[in-house]
Specification:
It is built from four helices and two strands, in the order αααββα. By secondary structure, it is mainly α. The chain has one domain. It has a two-stranded antiparallel sheet. Strand 1 and strand 2 form a beta hairpin. The radius of gyration is 16 Å and the shape is globular.
Length: 111
């Protein structure tokens, strides 16, 4: 049986309860919008990458997609077509450089 990590199932694992409650409602709305956009962009990238890999080298895709998707912490970005892992924060910044403009860029976390 696959070893599951809490952060693979619950993206709020390790984040204090109510940590964003002190933000003004307008700021919360901006954070929600950013989260939704990042999620949608990630979904679209995943579909595009999945189609590309399945056409070019279907044998390199994970055999057990459930274990691949939920078997590692979401703090890690696991590649579908290579035996490669990187911090998910690095992947976030690689895909969403505009976070720098809105003040959500941590230079120490970006690659």
């Amino acid at each position: 049986m696959t070893q599951y990590h809490p952060a693979a199932n619950d993206i709020t694992d390790g984040i204090p309860d109510d940590v964003l409650n002190a933000l003004p409602e307008e700021a919360k709305a901006v954070v929600r919008t950013l989260l939704a956009r990042v999620s949608e962009r990630s979904y679209r990238r995943g579909v595009q990458q999945g189609v590309t890999v399945s056409q070019r080298s279907p044998g390199s895709l994970p055999k057990d997609l459930h274990a691949w998707r939920y078997g590692a912490s979401t703090d890690l970005s696991v590649w579908a077509d290579f035996d490669m892992v990187e911090p998910s924060m690095s992947r976030l910044y690689a895909e969403n450089g505009s976070l720098r403009r809105v003040g959500l860029w941590e230079a120490s976390k970006a690659r």
